[in-house]
Amino acid sequence: MLDLFEVITTSGVVLWSKSYAPVKPSIINSLISDVFIEERNQPGSDGKWFKKDSYTLKWTLAADVGLVFVAVYQSLIHLTWIDELLDQVKKLFVALYGEKIKASTGTKIQCHFDQYFEASLRSLERQAGGAATTRTTNVSTDDPSSDGNGGGLSDGDEWSSPPPMPGVNNTGTSDFQHRTPYSSEKPNPLIEVTPSATSAPVSPATMAQALLQASGRRPGRPRRNRKSAGPSSASSTHASSGEERSPARLSNKPKRGKEMRIWGEDGIAAEANDERKLDYSAGISTDDEQDTFRPKPEAIDQDTWGTRTNKGDFLLKDLDYEIDGILKQANSAENNEETNRKGPGGIASGFMGGAMGYLRNFVGGKTLTREDTGKAISGVMTHLLEKNVAREAAVQICDSVQTSLIGQKTGSFQSIESLVKLAMEDALRKILTPTTSLDLLREIGQVRETEERPYVISVVGVNGVGKSTNLSKISFFLLQNKLKVLIAACDTFRSGAVEQLRVHARNLKELSEREGGVVELYEKGYGKDAANIAKDAVSYAGTNGFDVVLIDTAGRRHNDQRLMSSLEKFAKFANPDKILMVGEALVGSDSVQQARNFNAAFGKERKLDGFIISKCDTVGDMVGTLISMVFATGIPVVFLGVGQNYTDLRTLNVKWAVGLLMS
């Protein structure tokens, strides 16, 4: 897919760059020297593309601000949306930073453009029906090893290349070792094996033989033959074969009974008394020692995902709606310029064609009946289903809109289709508009001042929807407001759930040091009762002065009564102020039943308080799940998850959502 995108000034300064695979600087330099300076276009390109080595480069110019936008991708891949990406990025970048570039005399302009670019790229990839570009950390092109004759690595090579096989003597540093993102000056004890001195070279032919050598066995000989070979055979083995036998097995003791066979993770059988070292974590015992081996999280600029009010509160912004507004404004300006360039005849013919098409559908002053609106309502229902609205919700909404239109009169020069569309937009707007306040910061402040206790938020949902991830996003948002947050690990069932929250807590602590927020993890391990852990966590938070408690829970199937029944006890013990359910934007028709079952699982006196719709960045304009879940329960959407970073959390903009549904 896309390897590199750069925004360059006409003087050759890179203002902004996004890299998905290593690309040598000479690729861009060749474009500048051959095309822009020497004006030598390649045969057949017509100045629209440039090929260098295995790459194809396309570009567009913004002459008014002196910028060049360049996209680089592999020549073997045909990307149909590159031209549209260049056009969209140019409009967005010029609209956001054009005035700064014109007013600035230097080149040091802070361009926080990553999320705008990612949103545009994901949208075009979905429209094209192709696989999304693999998202990796930006790869630096300053590595000396990238200038070799071997060319650049393909997308993802730095992650997929295997480490050297154990037992192989590497005389030099491999290219993989140069490019491993988590490389350190200290050797990795898990993969580095120092071979014993020997006169015969060791070069296992297969990975299976390498595994055998690492496990202390000779490849090519069955276990039964090795047992029958006796001590004399073992003593004649070369030292480099990796054979490791205990002294007890080499002695002439009487033969014991058959011992239990133990199968390792590598599929190789081992004896019960095999004296191989299996625990490689002995050298790392504390989190402080582990931190020396981990990369620190990158600092995050607040302006890229929110704004701070005059009172000091940090509020989330609506990124997608902002992008849509910028693109519409830019397209409108281009359309006006195109209209001004047309002659009188062109304007007249365009007006007459549009007017005749409109008059064919127009009805004025007509009292509507169910039969009059039937065709338009049917078309709107099909449209909602295509937007991923559940059928049950779509049918009921369309019936309600049709009933409300019966007996109304169409206005002058108003078609039935336009009247149905307006009525549907109004109905969707009413469904998504919350009936209660969603100001989470205000509610937290009131509880702290009046009741002097922590504000408790619990996150529930089915398996794999992103509960822990969105909980960490909410925690990061609260930390920007200098709150003291306690994360309670109440998923005592899923393997790795506690460790996942431990990593989140450590990263959030490092990222929020500047803002003064405090975050801590409360954990009791696995196999315990989640309701009791939640109750203890709330009590601990009240004793130690925490402002907010975020409770993570185990995922459960909404149609499994045995698993859902424990939520009632959980709600009574933890007594959360808000219970938020995480639902996937791509779930489809099952979203209605999920929302209803979870809403009814907490008992007669307790219901859900809001939804977090995750993975909205994967569905484009098919955001029908928003309507389905809210319509089924009457519970509002509080947050939207738009990515996998801590900053990828947004509040719902009703106008934006309705616009996407009706587009």
UniProtKB/TrEMBL annotation:
GO terms for cellular component: signal recognition particle receptor complex. Residues 128-147, 228-240 have a biased composition (Low complexity). One of its GO terms (molecular function) is GTP binding. It comes from the Eukaryota. It is a peripheral membrane protein. The chain crosses the membrane at residues 622-642. One of its GO terms (biological process) is intracellular protein transport. Residues 636-649 form the SRP54-type proteins GTP-binding domain. Pfam families: SRP-alpha_N (PF04086), SRP54 (PF00448), SRP54_N (PF02881). SUPFAM superfamilies: Domain of the SRP/SRP receptor G-proteins, P-loop containing nucleoside triphosphate hydrolases, SNARE-like. Residues 128-267, 286-305 are annotated as: Disordered. Residues 168-186 have a biased composition (Polar residues). Keywords: Endoplasmic reticulum, GTP-binding, Membrane, Nucleotide-binding, Receptor, Transmembrane, Transmembrane helix. The keyword Transmembrane applies. SMART domains: AAA (SM00382), SRP54 (SM00962). It is found in: Endoplasmic reticulum membrane. InterPro entries: AAA+_ATPase, Longin-like_dom_sf, P-loop_NTPase, Sig_recog_particle_rcpt_asu_N, Signal_recog_particl_SRP54_hlx, SRP/SRP_N, SRP54_GTPase_dom, SRP54_N_sf. Residues 218-227 have a biased composition (Basic residues). Belongs to the GTP-binding SRP family. Heterodimer of an alpha and a beta chain. This is Signal recognition particle receptor subunit alpha homolog. It comes from Orbilia oligospora.
